[in-house]
Specification:
The structure holds 2 protein chains of 2 kinds.
Chain A: H1 2-25, H2 29-55, H3 64-83, H4 91-108, H5 122-158, H6 171-203, H7 209-229, H8 235-255, H9 257-261
Chain B: E1 2-9, H1 15-21, H2 25-35, E2 41-46, E3 50-57, H3 60-74, E4 83-86, H4 87-98, H5 110-121, H6 126-145, H7 155-167, E5 174-178, H8 182-193, E6 197-202, H9 208-215, E7 220-223, H10 234-244, E8 249-253, E9 270-274, H11 275-337, H12 339-342, H13 347-377, H14 381-392
Parallel strand pairs in B: 5-6, 5-7, 7-8, 8-9
Antiparallel strand pairs in B: 1-3, 1-4, 2-3
Helix pairs in contact in B: 4-6, 4-11, 5-6, 6-11, 7-8, 7-11, 11-13, 11-14, 13-14
Classes of the chains: A mainly alpha, B alpha/beta.
């Protein structure tokens, strides 16, 4: 059953990724097809997660690979909030290839099948893993929006004759959207991390590299919020900081989980 | 009923001729009403680029003659510049006009409202009502399914579109106008129509201190003075930026020689466009409009074809109606003859007999009806209608 749902999800996300590239070359039909690919792929992946939740005994996304599966779903869900609008289609160029690549990695790690239950308690994992992954998905989206901001800002500076050919969100809109996304994500990460730390202390476990990387990520994104809200940072500086924060998300998400899940 | 179009436009007549036949709303209404005699339908479409009379009449030659005379009476010299189109070609032309494909700037949106107004003010009947409704539908469809009307077609519209790329909604944004040339006024009007407000129109008498003060708060600066030196230097703008706390500033320099220091473009948070930049953008967007026009032409052609099929079917509708009436007459007469037998049936059995006979008639006439409509679309409608009248003896009782 999981196989039947995984492949449509992957293929539809793949179609969306290709469609968004096509939309860059010639805006229109390819972009619309890509948007439908995201929608239908998301439905297929939602069904896959539902099957995993029903069939598995316990929290099904407690392993590194399966948490990646959930992470992809959260990123695409967050993207769907804006991504279906025509002006935001370019975001898909960043988000969808990333979703495809991560879903393939999740499958290679055995995270898209059934029977991956964890021995940890369900409630702890739902709160800890769910919140941290949701926050990371938010940061990923904020970084994609910041990337789009920098691209559009550069175009406005270089003044090409084609500047009005493609509908892109305004700089001010992208700037505030990135801020709002981070403002939602930081509290989620804070709560998820606090739950993890409380459990860590209760069990007397030691800190590992993933915890340290997550803490660094938290610090950078808190700094982002503080500098934007209190320091008056906007525009390019804020966008670069968001991309720096995303690098830490990548490190925490991909490079270090082996130490944490082991 | 036949459709006739007589008119002139910017393609055929210079402004000296067009202004002779340009009509206001009341005049256009009166002219349409005057031509709509003897059961004719008339609509007068008059804009700054065209004056066209659409007439639906049984006698197209006379309708055309009357329309030409009506326009020639407004300006005798205009007659050689008049075009005359009939039926399918006239409808296709109207659809292209409504879609903005016949406009000076392809895809301009104002024409759709003008076509709607002309329709409302005209003396319409079944034919003109149908053709104008379908033209408005075609115009809306072209705008919805192509990007022909999305890009700016003038320097002032390009400046406003750039402001939207930077700020999003322009509601509440403030503009500083340096000098008041025609193009800068148009740009300011364009920005105001999108919700922006003018903070100050500065001229040579305005104190520089006041301008510097405003630079710290305004969102858009439009410069168009006749000064020979720079009016705003990068250093001045740089000083103002410190007070802006990262707020973006769009500067549009429409003057030649330039009013704004080109080095402003290097400042963080400043976006500077001069007249060359804007003109290149307009050239690019016009070429985009022309590309989209190809897709729009296909949509218009399909809509015109639909109208043609409907219009052509009108030729055979009376014959079809007569044929069906004759068949129904025969059916009822035969049922009447069989009354002595049917009298023994109860109510439900009688209804069943009625239904079966009606069904036989419908099934027999279905294919001939479809074939006649197809023939009408292929221009053989009248021939087929005559053949049906002859074969079934339709209308012979009336002769």
């Amino acid at each position: 059953m999981a196989e039947l749902l995984f492949w449509p999800a992957l293929l539809l996300y793949g179609e969306a990724a290709v469609g968004y590239f096509g939309d860059v070359r010639r805006p229109g039909r390819a972009g619309r097809a890509a948007t439908w690919g995201v929608r239908l792929g998301w439905l297929a992946q939602t069904a896959l997660l539902a099957v995993q939740a029903v069939r598995d005994d316990g929290f099904p996304w407690g392993t590194w690979a399966s948490s990646l599966d959930l992470f992809v779903w959260l990123v695409v869900s967050a993207y769907l909030i804006w991504g279906c609008r025509r002006r935001y289609r370019l975001l898909g160029l960043v988000v969808m290839p990333l979703a495809v690549a991560l879903l393939v990695v999740a499958r290679a790690g055995g995270g898209t099948g059934i029977g991956g239950a964890s021995h940890y308690s369900n409630l702890f994992l739902v709160v800890h893993v769910g919140l941290v992954l949701a926050a990371f998905a938010g940061f990923t989206l904020a970084a994609a929006i910041s990337g789009l901001y920098l691209w559009q800002e550069r175009r406005l500076r270089t003044r090409p004759a084609t500047i009005l050919r493609r509908q892109v969100p305004a700089l001010a809109t992208l700037d505030s959207l990135a801020l709002r996304t981070v403002a939602w994500s930081v509290p989620l990460l804070t709560l998820g991390a606090v739950v993890g730390v409380v459990r860590l202390l209760a069990r007397g476990d030691r800190l590992d590299a993933l915890i340290a990387a997550t803490a660094a990520t938290w610090v950078v994104w808190c700094a982002y919020l503080a500098l934007r809200l209190l320091g008056g940072w906007t525009g390019r500086r804020a966008a670069y900081l968001a991309l720096a924060g995303f690098v830490l998300v990548v490190v925490a998400r991909l490079a270090l989980p082996a130490t944490h899940f082991a | 009923m036949r459709l006739v179009l007589v008119g002139t436009s910017h393609h055929h007549a210079p402004v000296e001729l067009r202004e002779q036949v340009a009509l206001g709303r009341e005049q256009a209404h009166a002219l349409a009403a005057r031509l709509a005699e003897d059961g004719r339908e008339t609509v007068c479409l008059s804009t700054c680029n065209r004056t066209e009379l659409y007439v639906a009449a049984d006698d197209p030659e006379r309708a055309e003659r009357d329309a030409v005379e009506a326009l020639a009476s407004l300006g005798p010299e205009v007659e050689p510049a008049l075009y005359r189109l009939h039926d399918r070609a006239a409808a296709h032309h109207l659809f292209r006009v409504a879609a903005g494909l016949d406009s000076l700037v392809p895809g301009e949106g104002e024409i759709l409202g003008q076509v709607r107004l002309a329709h409302e003010l005209g003396t319409t009947g079944p034919l003109l009502d149908r053709v104008f409704r379908q033209a408005l539908h075609a115009g809306r469809k072209v705008r919805a399914q192509t990007a022909i009307g999305e890009s700016p077609a003038s320097v002032s519209a390009a400046a406003a579109a750039l402001a939207e790329q930077v700020f999003g909604s322009l509601e509440g944004r403030s503009i500083l106008l340096l000098g008041a040339g025609k193009v800068s006024e148009q740009a300011a009007r364009n920005l105001r129509s999108r919700g922006a407000e003018i903070a100050l129109v500065a001229d040579s008498k305005t104190e520089r201190g006041q301008i510097h003060e405003l630079l710290a708060s305004v969102d858009v600066v439009i410069a168009s003075t006749g000064a020979h030196g720079l009016v705003l230097e990068a250093q001045t703008v740089g000083e103002a930026l410190r007070e802006r706390r990262g707020r973006r500033l769009l500067l549009v320099d429409l003057a030649v020689p330039r009013d704004l220091d080109p080095a402003i473009a290097e400042l963080d948070g400043c976006y500077l466009y001069d007249i060359d930049d804007l003109e290149q953008i307009v050239v690019e967007t016009l070429s985009l409009r022309r590309r989209e026009a190809e897709r729009a032409e296909a949509i218009v052609a399909a809509e015109a074809e639909k109208f043609h099929e409907w219009h052509a079917s009108l030729d055979v509708v009376p014959a079809i109606a007569s044929l069906r009436a004759r068949a129904e007459e025969i059916r009822e007469a035969e049922l009447q003859k069989a009354e002595s037998l049917l009298g023994r049936l109860d109510e439900s059995q009688r209804r069943a007999v009625e239904a079966v006979t009606a069904q036989i008639v419908n099934k027999l006439l279905h294919l001939p009806t479809v074939r006649m409509k197809e023939a009408a679309a292929a221009a053989d409608g009248v021939l087929y209608a005559e053949a049906v009248r002859h074969l079934f003896g339709l209308g012979e009782d009336e002769r």
